[in-house]
Amino acid sequence: MTLEQTKEQVENTAPQRRCICCRGNGKKTGLLRFAVIQGCLCFDLRQKLPGRGYYVCAQNHCLEKAFESGFRRITKHESKELAPDVQTFVREILLPGLKKRYTEYLLAGYQSHRLLLGADSVEHAAQADQLAAYIIASDASEATAQKYRMNAERKQLPVLGLYDRSFYGCLFGKSDKVVLGWMPGTLFDEFSVLESMIRRLSAE
Ligand SMILES: [Zn+2]
Fold it and tell me: I need a surface site. Which of 37, 165, 183, 187 has the fewest CB within 10 A?
């Protein structure tokens, strides 16, 4: 009920894990992993810390339950508290961590030529049916946003984008970028899961 079933999750044979709160299964990379280090339950941003991992859906409903009782129950009281409260954890640890990963995916995409910067290259790829999604900066003018949303609709492509034009430009040492585009592939799949996690956690 609380796990978002995305197209990738259905199509992909990627490892699945179960949320300790709602018991729903989901793709491992779409869940948040926690691991016990020296008796402390730590958030494992990159899902690489050794030892047993505990997974929670990337949404406030399940995180709140985990902080209330889920972690205590499952670790049998062996762990100290993770953070003073779930809101502090989301604000201070989780969202900054996810934003860092978000920038890493964009850089990896650019380096491997899967991420396109600027209207010309994005539109060129869209014409050639080589585009998987648009990214539109949050501060794009209404007319610009509308134009790309219509293009995306025509090609039945998703429209992403969380941050403003200076964020997307600055990341690549360039001037402001209003429009970017992803070409299909694993990087795009994981990026789009990550973006929906950030969007959901910021909005709730
Ligand atoms: Zn859950």
Answer: 37
What is the residue whose two structure tokens read 């949303």?
Answer: 149
Domain covering 101-203 assigned CATH 3.30.450.40 in the classification: no
Q: What is the pLDDT of residues 59-112, one digit of tens each?
A: 999 999 998 888 888 776 665 555 568 999 999 999 999 999 999 999 999 999
Residue linked to tokens 């796990």: 3
Centre of ligand 1 to C-alpha 69, Å, is 13
Domain ranges of the chain: 7-96, 101-203
Ligand 1 centroid distance, CA of 63 (Å): 8
Q: What is the CATH number of domain 7-96?
A: 3.30.1230.10
Q: CB atoms < 10 A from the CB of 164, how many?
A: 16
CA 66 – ligand 1 centroid, Å: 9
Q: Give the pLDDT confidence of 105-131 residue by residue, as tens digits.
A: 999 999 999 999 999 999 999 999 999
Instruction: Name which of 113, 111, 153, 107 is nearest 134 in CA terms.
Output: 153
Cα→Cα distances 94→83, 105, 130, 194, Å: 11, 17, 33, 12
Q: How far is the CA of 68 from the centre of ligand 1 (A)?
A: 14
CA 2 to ligand 1 center in whole angstroms: 6
